[in-house]
Protein: Cytochrome P450
Amino acid sequence: MELAWPLVAGALLLLPLSFLLLHHHHAKNRGKATSRSLPPGPAVVPVLGNLLWVRNHGIDILRAMRHLHARHGPVLALRMGSRLEIIVSDRRLAHAALVESGAALADRPGFASRDLLGLNAATISTSSYGPLWRLFRRNFVAEIANPARLRLFAPARAAVLAELLDKLRHRKEEDDGTIVETFQYAMFRLLVAMCFGERLDERAVRDIAAAQRDLLLYSSTKLRVFAFLPAVTTRLFRGRLQAMLAKRRRLKDMYMPLIDARRERKKLGSSAVPDQPQHEPAAAAAAATTLPHAYVDALLDIRLNGDEGGRSLTDDEMIALCSEFLNGGTDTTATVLQWTMAELVKNPGIQDKLHEEIKDTMASTGSDHISEEDVHRMPYLKAVVLEGLRRHPPGHLVLPHAPAEDMELGGYVIPKGTMVNFMVADMGMDEQVWERPREFAPERFLAGGDGEGVDITGTREISMMPFGAGRRICPGLNVATLHLEYFVANLVRAFEWREQEGKEVDVEGEKAEFTVVMANPLRARLVARDDA
Structure:
């Protein structure tokens, strides 16, 4: 965590006042019932909070949290600046909080810095629990995640798969990192098509990806300082705000022509191609790259009710929702795909068993490829994907929750508006649920295994929660699992994935980026299958 000297100096100046305020607070509350106490946690430095955030970053923060849980228990209190955050590591308490308590913990915490930074456009993930969130979520589920709608994107998935396989065939084995980069590009390309309804050329897709990633990276590194005394830091670091606004304008300049093209298409009718008769080559090419349905179409139809007077979404609101769509499904899916393929390289017996299921499925259907319908008839494929999600969830924490009112959890009080988070990866490694949890064993999800009939939504109980649980569970769960099953099956059908000589695949080392990725990116020797 970067702490510039002006911020530290300001904090030191405020220390005497903070100690006085703390002393007054303790004197005022002395004698109150201990049953209403906050969860335990490490020592707090006034203004700065826990030094955890200063001393650690990335994966080290997650490791430090695990050590603190071992010392203080399953419910842990931390402070970042003046902000309280509660971290829960126990799966039963997670179920009590997220599922049994229902709407009590379905809100999102407010961030004073969001208003100061101009980041207040509502999305599915950031909206407060209420009518606007329900509208956005219902729209996404009905127009994207619904199986009938998902089938409309089959041509885009097939095109992306063909391009991905071609890139893998022509990659040079000694090029480090090319596999994960190729996975990320493929997932982003697919989501761009689903979002904007156009299969753009590679240069355009990479330009959007670069702008999106640049903004994300800047936001997650340079803007952290605004968590500390935002009223002060927004003045001290005004240049960072201006840089962020410039990056957002760059992204808007890329998005708006695509959104406006879809808006014009809706005006003319879904089958029309402006100013081009259908028999001309240019019109045919346009029709071939234009999808019949897109996320933007659904956003254009949204009307905000109540106090909003039934208005349409503004351009900035649409851009925020499109960014959320692209961010939410790219790195997460590409990360699990890399981890899963790495485990198949590491465990050739599992890969062989999966390949046999693929061959049997193709023989039974008489098809020469694995379709999206085929993956629904492949139980071992589903088990491989579930084991990848259990063993290597892309996020080791969920997006933070917040109680609408004071609530009790595990015998401690959680004040209204407090950030509450959950140790996702730890729940999927609980030895009370899973036998040999560090082992990659898809068979556990088949008949007789410890994961047979597992409820990935966490509704009945939480034994793994890669998509979260409760009211705010990820609405893209069905989209992500379809993409993982489809691409894993076709990657194994096309190639035998082997270790490179002298370069062992490391499935233990982790590194925190936007997701938790392999510390040593996947290297593999890809051998084309004779039957592919």
About this structure: The mean pLDDT is 85. The two ends are 48 Å apart (CA to CA).
